[in-house]
Design a protein that fits this description.
homodimer; Arc Repressor Mutant, subunit A; five-stranded parallel sheet; three-stranded antiparallel sheet; DNA-binding
Chain lengths: 223, 223
DNA sequence: ACAAAGTTGTGTTCATTGTGTTCACGCTCA
DNA sequence: TGAGCGTGAACACAATGAACACAACTTTGT
């Protein structure tokens, strides 16, 4: 559950945005603050994962508060909400390492899309020990579109196979990957052998009684 | 012309990356530094737009240097280059407001793709007085929810498709949505794929005998 | 020591199911 | 009337999985 602190000087707006967040699966509103000082105190008290931060606060500029929040909680993520359209403000916020900048007024769908992006990219980095290039690319919405898949392989299934391999504790056989994903061994093998060609997996043989079994271990991309 | 400072302790690597940058239209190498101290001095002297920053430097951690570079030149952009795959390193760099994180080893094409993204997104913000949501979305590679309805789709049918999906208990295929609304599969698919682009639905494949079926699940707000 | 049998797994083939594209059709509007 | 749009039938082809021949090992028998 991703804990969110709402920071907005306008009580009504804060309430609306709280409602939006509360309706987003996987997110929960852990608090609301209406000034920069309150926000700092609440960050220290509640330890939220994410702050929805309005730039215009009565006691401090949101951009300045961003730095202070970072100092108070280095692991905090910040999604800036602002009516400000000055490119300079946007640039400063981006250089502050925000996860998004959403311009008011915005719809619930707008916010949900950004929260979803945050959840799928930044938060998956949070729960991982290692990352690879595709994780970073996901943050910036860049897809590895340059590598064409062979005929007979779909992008969606490839992503699922890669994900399964990367989260496996050890190596896996085609049959195991297939069972895990609801695919046949033969289909899983198609993807695994292609990943092998790309150098993204390492193949090892497991010897027993009978023909050796091909097992695949995630090795990360090789350029 | 975007001026780039290369910061890497390995002289050979720095030379290779300089070559990559020099071959990117719109970019010029303004200097090379091999230590953190040199990098700071060169940033002050050369005023580059972008630093290609290797994390592993002999005298300082690249992440720490990032903060110092920001203090010395608040308008500086930083593209991190690193062999580090620890997710924690990646997270810290992202919170430092980097424009990208490229994992070694990478190809020239890899770097050019990121430089191109930087040029089209961050740099266009640099030359603008105002920004709008699509400018921010471009940084994060998101298409936004206000993308106009494509030719061949009617607003009335769009609403009906969205309503059908919203009220579905589970996911639906294009065929099912089409049957429900009295449309053909192909027409329903048009709307569903558009919603997929907008991030309002999630696509999952259902495997069986034969080609997998694309199924669409509503992911936007319920209300 | 070597061959044969048994066991386990692979890799290929092709049938099945579904997708995605193309373009003709009917309707609306200027 | 002609242009443009929304739609769907038709079709080529894509992505799967079952079935099967056979490969690569281990075990057993001579």
């Amino acid at each position: 559950m991703i804990k969110v602190l709402i920071v907005d000087d306008d009580f009504m707006v804060a309430r609306i945005h709280s409602g939006f967040v509360a309706q987003m699966p996987g997110f929960t509103v852990s608090g609301v603050a209406h000034t920069g000082a309150q926000a700092l105190a609440e960050v220290r008290r509640l330890r939220p994962d994410l702050v929805l931060l309005d730039i215009h606060l009565p006691d401090i500029s949101g951009l300045e508060l961003l730095g202070q929040l970072r100092a108070a909680a280095p692991e905090i993520d910040v999604l800036v909400i602002s009516a400000a359209r000055e490119a300079d403000t946007v640039r400063q916020a981006l250089r502050g390492g925000i996860v998004h900048y959403l311009m008011k007024p915005f719809t619930q769908a707008d916010l949900h899309q950004r929260l979803d992006h945050y959840q799928r990219t930044y938060r998956s980095l949070e729960s991982a020990d290692t990352a690879d290039q595709s994780d970073v690319d996901a943050v910036f919405g860049m897809s590895g579109t340059d590598k064409p898949l062979p005929k007979g392989c779909s992008a969606e299934t490839m992503v699922r196979v890669q994900t399964a391999l990367r989260s496996a504790e050890a190596d896996s056989s085609a049959l195991e990957v297939g069972e895990l994903l609801g695919l046949s061994r033969v289909s899983a093998r198609r993807y695994l052998e292609y990943l092998n060609e790309l150098g993204q997996v390492q193949v090892e043989l497991r010897y027993g009684s009978g023909r050796p079994e091909r097992r695949y271990r995630w090795q990360g991309p090789r350029s």
